Amino acid sequence: MSHLLEGLNQLLPDESHYLICGTIAALTHNGSGHGLNHSNADLREYCERLVVHLQDPYLRAMITHLTVNDWTDVLDEDSLPIRERLAVAFQFLDDKALTSFLRSVVDQAVQRGDLTGLIVTGFTAQGMEVLQKYVDVTGDVQTAAIISSLRVPSLITHNGKTLTKSVVDRWVEAYQNLLDGWKLFHHRCQFDIERGNIIQGALGGGEGQRKQWQPRQIMIRCNFCNKTVDVVSGKAKGVSEHTIHSNHFEF
After folding, report:
1. Are 199 and 139 found together in one domain?
2. Helices marked H in the chain — which ranges?
3. Quick one: which H or E segment has residue 158?
4. Model confidence over 230-245: pLDDT tens digits?
5. Do residues 64 and 134 share a domain?
6. Most buried of 145, 147, 158, 185 (most Cβ within 10 A)?
7. Which residue has the higher pLDDT, 194 or 42?
């Protein structure tokens, strides 16, 4: 503890922080790491008033925990990065409390469109809800398109079932149209190439099923009956086999 207080004194040279260091030392001595009891009611009341006026979330979390010896109040400190609150939760909470905390993190992320919630949700249905809320709040379709492109659409699942990729497609298409509208064609090409590399790498690694990601750009049409021909089956759509006229095809 002496090293901690010495480090705080060096990092926080302001006079008010010297007082905070004294408060932390008093809490450590009186609470012995187990929070303050009823015999320390005055010190506890002082710390509760002090926490309200502190601007630094780390100092608030430190004094709060030393005062009540309860990590719940620390985890409720929204100013702390979610990754650090998750580290505290995984370290000190039991399974039931941890499950409840993770659910609250997901609910808040979906409600606020907080992208850090993707650490917990991953690319699931709830993760897509977080991205959609983020787009609704910020209008930043670029971030949504890039993040969703890091995962092959057919691998975005919920309860073991593949989700529809229509939402991801809309974000990607909107971003592509935005780049085209700004005439940033090099950036558009780079985005398409890197997205294609991600999909190709995932499929090559056996992570997804191969499918037709992009409609065919070349169509074969019978020059005699004007029917399009399915390249795979060699038959014209909607026409029986005997009506296909060989030697009359054009590209």
Report:
1. yes
2. 2-11, 15-31, 41-53, 57-68, 71-75, 82-92, 95-112, 118-121, 125-138, 141-149, 166-181, 185-204
3. strand 157-158
4. 655 544 444 444 444 4
5. no
6. 145
7. 194
